[in-house]
């Protein structure tokens, strides 16, 4: 993972801040205010809806069938499997499918998804992959770290979240996306790789912002 490792190194400080955020630590030790977590999972659902659109554009912009297949498979899995699991998980916090559909994007959710869509409409498949990767890979890193520290048995729904992102299946998915990113970067020229790095850093910052948004239960000021 040459190019991926290079981007990860550039974003190391940002990722460390995300892993140390009180929202993430609160999931890990089970002390997070449930209202903050409920806010987070509703906003994450809004994010996933837009993420599916981004994956569709990545598939459309792919230069070969193998890459198109990988993006299409991930889109299908997100749309038909992950979002259904998300709805079921949210229901256990009292959020119905109707509630989720009516959720208004908070400022950071709106900004982050607009960033992804802007890259998706204006960039290459490689640029889109770079913009998406901090979400997929970042959750794998956090899930593995929290699982390694021991899940909070007294808060089983938080433990379930940790176990999902720390699972071997999710770790494998993140590894596959890193490998795809390296493959796309190997085909790109210097200018495109520079844009990839810039998108990766911006999305990494938005990942931190997403935790902060959820911690403060961010609202539109007016």
Alpha-beta classification = mainly alpha
H and E string: HHHHHHHHHHH
Radius of gyration: 17 Å
Into which percentage range does the β-strand content fall?
Answer: under 5%
Secondary structure tally, helices: 11
- Choose one word for the global shape: globular
Explain this structure:
It is a single chain. The longest helix has 27 residues, at 34-60. The chain has 222 residues and is mostly helical. Helices cover 82% and strands 0% of the residues. It is globular.
Question: Concise description?
Answer:
The protein is mainly alpha-helical and 222 residues long.
Layout: helices, strands, pairs:
Layout: H1 2-10, H2 12-19, H3 22-29, H4 34-60, H5 65-91, H6 97-101, H7 107-122, H8 125-149, H9 156-166, H10 168-187, H11 190-216
Helix pairs in contact: 2-11, 3-8, 4-5, 4-7, 4-8, 4-11, 7-8, 7-11, 8-9, 8-10, 8-11
Structural features:
222 residues
């Amino acid at each position: 993972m040459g190019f991926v490792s290079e981007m990860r190194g550039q974003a190391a400080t940002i990722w460390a801040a995300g892993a140390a955020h009180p929202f993430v630590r609160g999931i890990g030790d089970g002390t997070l205010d449930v209202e903050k977590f409920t806010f987070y999972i509703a906003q994450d659902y809004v994010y996933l809806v837009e993420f599916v659109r981004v994956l569709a554009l990545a598939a459309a912009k792919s230069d070969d069938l193998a890459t198109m297949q990988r993006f299409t498979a991930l889109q299908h899995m997100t749309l038909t499997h992950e979002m259904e699991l998300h709805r079921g998980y949210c229901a256990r916090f009292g959020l119905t499918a109707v509630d989720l559909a009516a959720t208004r994007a908070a400022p950071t959710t709106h900004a982050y998804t607009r960033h992804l869509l802007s890259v998706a409409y204006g960039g290459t498949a490689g640029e889109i992959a770079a913009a998406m990767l901090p979400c997929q890979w970042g959750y794998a890193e956090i899930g593995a770290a929290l699982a390694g520290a021991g899940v909070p048995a007294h808060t089983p729904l938080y433990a379930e979240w940790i176990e999902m992102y720390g699972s071997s299946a999710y770790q494998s998915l993140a590894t596959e996306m890193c490998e795809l990113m390296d493959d796309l970067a190997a085909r790109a020229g210097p200018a495109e790789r520079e844009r990839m790095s810039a998108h990766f850093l911006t999305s990494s910052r938005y990942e931190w912002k997403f935790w902060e948004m959820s911690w403060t239960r961010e609202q539109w000021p007016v």
